[in-house]
Amino acid sequence: MKKRSFADLFFLLFVVYIVLPVVATMLYAFADKWNKTILPEGLTLKWVMTLFQDPAFMQAFGRSVLLASGAVIIALLVIVPAIFVIVLYFPKYEKWIQAAVVMVYSFPGIILAVGLIRVYSKFGISMILVVLGAYVISILPYIYQGTRNSLRNVDARQLLDAAQLLGASKMQAFTKILLPTVYPGLFAGALLSFSVLFGEFVLINLVVGSRFETVQIYLMKKLSTSGHIASAVVFVYIVLMGVLTFIIAKVTKKTKGATNV
Amino acid sequence: MSYITIEGLHKKFGETTVLTEIDMRIEKGEFITLLGPSGCGKSTILRILAGLTDSSAGVIQIDGKNMIGVEPKERQVGMVFQSYALFPNMTVYENVAFGLRMQKVASAEIDKRVQEMLAIVNLTEKANFYPKELSGGQQQRVALARAVIVRPKVLLLDEPLSALDAQIRKKLQVDLRNIQQQLGMTMILVTHDQEEAMAISDRIFVMNNGMIAQNGTPTEIYTSPKSEFVANFIGHYNVFTRQALEKMVGTTLPVKGEKFAIRPEAIHLEQKQGDIAITGVAQHSLMSGNVIRTTFEGESVFLMEQLHQRKHNVAIGQKYTCYVAKEDVVALS
């Protein structure tokens, strides 16, 4: 019994440690006045309203969505077919993808940013495109794991064989059988990638800077001018991530036929 | 010319030879079984026939057409896989209809044929279920329906029943044979289960180490094995060298050959005219339902199989004289 209450206490402390800063920030986004009291003296929507009325925020939000979704779409178009071909037909090359996945995790953003600037700045390529390219590579682990795990759940090679023997072309077998089968894992990987890229700050700030203001750069600027507005940005960000997490959980629990046969 | 002809088929994976000089001739409407232990190359023959694996050398013809270099989807060959390979994102109905959709058959015709096929495999009520909602036996019947509905020239069955429990397997063996005869379809089954092969085949090709060890009807294979391998693989045959057998019967054998096989059920306790007598002490008995297998030890160890009847009971530790008809002593090559 004593052990149990200790465990409960530690769990409570852990939850408070994790949740309190988030709750405080969210409350601050709605706080009218909050100076010498434990809780806000009054609540207001004016900070969130001000944020959504600020064209700079809306543009920054649009840029972040565009950059993150653009990188995810390119990754899906380029990386997914490559993973399929390697896993199904050239499994001996899979170790190279795994090595690339580890490298993506192991490179700190600052090193990557310096490297990108040194290599690409002299070619006259738009640095936004360079960041976009780096983003595509940086989400390789999420896309790879999502696809690979889904392929592991089914005998993908045998499904392809069966479809072809029933008269399907390789492309038809891919689009009608394999893609719908791995879709939940792929979709979850894509959403996860999107949320990671949406919150990315180091690369975009170091390589492009405020010339291309994303939500994160907007947030950093607002930190020095208005804590309430900055908190409102965090609130919007957390809501967006909450929605994405909910969708990922729903999709991965998808009951309709696909996976685990 | 045969409906399916395989001549001089060879297959190597890297430096490893998996098939050597395979020759097979199969007639239209035959139910053929490739029987052999794991790794003997029987599934590779199916994959080569289906076009899923390339051969290293040899000729393959189906219905008079050379199949070398022909894409799997152009071969009109159906296949049922051991793991079923049902499309998990599709219902039973959609799985069965898939092949017809690929052939761009009209929707009304697809619906009619799918309903007919589901009725044949007794799955009409499961049409809207997903594969993971079905039992193993039901999944296998869907796989069979999906492969059969496109009316392939030959249906290849790669150990389709091996993942099922014994009772369902026996029922599906009967269903499979009935469907094959009902449709008059040529089928080639791969299995390592000799009872299954005996039960449903018109002819059996016994394979060992990438070669065909023997082919013939189930009766031919069972009663006249040509080699020690076949004798051991298809039953509990007693295999003796000439020297050992002559020592047991106490006389010179009037037949040629250096090794001989005797079916355990050909050995009995009642003497008939012209029988050879062999003696041994009963060591132990094993009852498997309707059959009792008794091991005797005399000059050599031998096994006797008798129906489970009171008159066949033997006392362990007692010496018996057993008998076998001369024609049941099979000379092996």
- Major β-sheet annotation of chain A: 2 strands, antiparallel
Please, what is the average pLDDT of chain A? 85
Instruction: Provide the structure class of chain A.
Output: mainly alpha
- What is the alpha-carbon Rg of chain B in Å? 24 Å
Give the name of the CATH superfamily of the largest domain in chain B.
P-loop containing nucleotide triphosphate hydrolases
Weakly predicted, low-confidence segments of chain A = none
What is the total number of structural domains of chain A? 2
Morphology of chain A: globular
Largest interface (CB < 8 Å): A-B, 24 and 28 residues
The ordered H/E elements of chain B are EEEHEEEHHHEHEHEEHHEHEEEEEEE
**How much beta of chain B, percentage-wise?**
25-35%
Tell me the number of structural domains of chain B.
Answer: 2
Which features would summarize this protein structure in a list?
heterodimer, A: 261 residues, mainly alpha, MetI-like fold, 2 domains, two-stranded antiparallel sheet, 12 helices, 2 strands, 79% helix, 2% strand, globular, B: 333 residues, alpha+beta, Rossmann fold, OB fold (Dihydrolipoamide Acetyltransferase, E2P), six-stranded mixed sheet, five-stranded antiparallel sheet, 9 helices, 18 strands, 33% strand, elongated
Describe the structure in brief:
Chain A has 261 residues and is mainly α.
Question: Can you walk me through this structure?
Answer:
The complex is a heterodimer of chains A (261) and B (333). Chain A is mainly α. Chain A folds into 2 domains: 1-44; 55-252, MetI-like fold (Orthogonal Bundle). Helices cover 79% and strands 2% of the residues of chain A. A two-stranded antiparallel ribbon of chain A has the order 1-2. In chain A, a hairpin with an 8-residue loop joins strand 1 and strand 2. Chain A is globular and about 75 Å long. Chain B has 333 residues and is of the alpha+beta class. Chain B folds into 2 domains: 4-232, Rossmann fold (3-Layer(aba) Sandwich), CATH 3.40.50; 259-332, OB fold (Dihydrolipoamide Acetyltransferase, E2P). In chain B, a hairpin with a 2-residue loop joins strand 4 (57-62) and strand 5. In chain B, helix 2 (92-102) crosses helix 3 (107-120) and helix 2 runs parallel beside helix 4. Chain B is elongated, with a radius of gyration of 24 Å. The model of chain B has no long low-confidence stretch (mean pLDDT 90). The interface between A and B is medium-sized, with 24 and 28 residues.
